[in-house]
Amino acid sequence: MARIPVSQAPTLLPKFNLHARANPQPSSDTYVYDAIKTDIGIAASTSDMCVKFFEPSTLQTKGQLNYHSDQITEIKARPNSLLSASSDGHIAIWDLRQALSAAPALVFKTKDPVLSFDMSIDDTLLVSGSALDKDYCAKINLWDPRVAAQPIAVYENSHSEDISQIRCHPSAPRQFLSGSSDGLLCTFDALQADEDEALLYVANTGASISGCGYFGPNSQYIFAQSDMETLQLWTNEATQLADFGDVRDLAESGVPTDYIIGCKYDPLTERLYLAAGTNEGDIHLLHVGAGSFEHIQALQSGHSGIVRGLSWDLSQGWVVSGAEDGRVSWWATTVPAQPPSPLAQAVSLTVSGQKD
Q1: Among 37, 64, 185, 221, which residue's beta carbon has the most beta carbons within 10 A?
Q2: Residue 220: exposed, middle, or buried by beta-carbon count in 10 A (0-12, 13-18, 19+)?
Q3: Phi, psi of 252 (to 5 degrees)
Q4: What DSSP assignment string belongs to 152-164?
Q5: Average pLDDT of 281-286?
Q6: HSE (side-chain half, CA atoms, 13 Å) at 219
Q7: Per-residue pLDDT for 106 more than 90?
């Protein structure tokens, strides 16, 4: 494939400055899988099966949630709540108005590892995607969160490999998207209990999907990233708009890239952004055009390993990231009074665990 066109657009976003880091103890080999902002601070899922909380601006530790017995695969924030999913087959909903030592307020249980999940915009539908089971079946479970005992529907014929991503539509409460290692993007209408009737569109990306989501003013488009570090853009009716191929080819245009961290749509500017990373921990932010990229800025010195998770809010001017070096880093568009130094400003995570 031809070299990906890249131009420089440093003023497209305000500059993000590193404000704080949380570092592991030197002897720790704990990963940070994901890092997000919640109503009570930064939440980070770690490889010791915990969710740890930090003050946003200083990353001082606040406490942790303990429930899962296997790797935490995804965490999400809702008003006054945090949701966590795990390879133990459980999805937990935590009431953040309670003490962090409290048990989950709700737990949804499956027999299969949960790889991804999402909640509808009106909080009346919870959807999860599972790993392929011993019977070679990958399931999508649908729950009414008000009735947590059993799923209200199970779709098990649309995918033939692990379901790596579930994303609910930003404005249509009963529509959701699934992406799988089988390369398929499936759009569903959850109003239909029958799977064949619920399946609206199928797009074959030809690559093992690691991430996907809606974008556009009316959420009329879909992005899909793969384990092979490719990026494609589609309509939500399964028409391909762009195939960028291997994003690592950005290195040929002067943007060192080893992997895709993720994509983020900003509804205020109506732009789709790509976060790409290097094995040394640098984060590159790019605007995704119809057939080209604009490189905006590089976030450096926050990490020294592969960045696993990144969450950001462009309107509020912050970015939080977590990486295999065990660090959580906080970036903001304001200028810090004193930039964090490699040692003096580091905060220890008092955890220990094993790498995957």
Answers
A1: 185
A2: exposed
A3: -70, -20
A4: SEEE-SS-SS-EE
A5: 98
A6: 15
A7: yes
